[in-house]
Amino acid sequence: MPARRWGKNFLFDLNLTGRIARAAGALDQGSVIEIGPGPGGLTRALLAHGAREVIAIERDPRCLGALAEIDQACPGRLSVIQGDALSVDVAHLGEAPRRIVANLPYNVATPLLLGWLKHATAFECLVLMFQKEVVDRLAARPDTKDYGRLSVITQWLCRVTPQFEVHPKAFVPPPAVTSTVVRLDPRPEPLAPARLETLERVTAAAFGQRRKMLRTSLKPLGDPVALCAAAGLDPTARAETIPVEGFAALARAVDEEA
């Protein structure tokens, strides 16, 4: 059985694994990086879809035997790294173009994504399965309840396209939540000029007190009224109403004031 402490729920439905593989487009060039393949349901789909090379990162040693059998069936096309994906520099694995395609362990899905986004242009695309609520946040627009830090950082760096939902009964064991597959296409350049480190500080301050006006929530960063004026924003606005470009403008204002 999957190790619950690692947040794994495995997917064996051939129709669903095939849909995930196809969402990544043509796979006959470069490398596909899969995180947490388990016994290899999605791995098989990626290879069947024509992946030239799949690099699978698996922490659970109990899954290595099943992956070895897939390797024997597709010699030279599957490499397995036993380890924690949080500790692996996936941006330099394999050959470009690189794609990450994965049913992510729920308990580390967001930290993994935030780490990859720091090197977003290293990837052709990322096709990932999260809990539905996470994808809702990734794709959220301003003035909605799901819009927040994760929305801003992700949309600043990538185009976000939800693909389809997956019912809990499709998994072994069934999770308590619905899942959603999403495709992220890294932008050649961020949506608006800014430094990532500063944008993270700005969004942390603004959404840390999301019900407060910017003139209050931005105080840790400097004079909030002056920062808003420099960014062309209303200091009485709240974080959830500010578009991604507005946060980038605030980040530039913070850097200029420093």
CATH topology of the largest domain: Rossmann fold
How many distinct helices?
10
Largest sheet: 7 strands, mixed
Reading the helices and strands in chain order gives EHEHEHEEHEHHEEEHHHH
Rounded radius of gyration (Å): 20 Å
CATH class of the largest domain: Alpha Beta
Give the helix/strand class.
alpha/beta
In total, how many beta strands?
9
The whole-number mean of residue pLDDT values reads 95
End-to-end C-alpha gap = 53 Å
Q: Into which percentage range does the β-strand content fall? A: 15-25%
Quick rundown:
Belongs to the class I-like SAM-binding methyltransferase superfamily. rRNA adenine N(6)-methyltransferase family. RsmA subfamily. It comes from Pararhodospirillum photometricum DSM 122. Helix content is 36%, strand content 20%.
What does this structure look like?
With 258 residues, the protein is of the alpha/beta class. It has two domains: 4-186, Vaccinia Virus protein VP39 (Rossmann fold, 3-Layer(aba) Sandwich); 196-257, Orthogonal Bundle (Helicase, Ruva Protein, domain 3), CATH 1.10.8. Helix content is 36%, strand content 20%. The strands form two sheets. It has a seven-stranded mixed β-sheet with strand order 4-3-2-5-6-9-7. A two-stranded antiparallel sheet has the order 1-8. The model is unreliable at 1-6 (pLDDT under 50). GO terms for molecular function: 16S rRNA (adenine(1518)-N(6)/adenine(1519)-N(6))-dimethyltransferase activity; RNA binding.
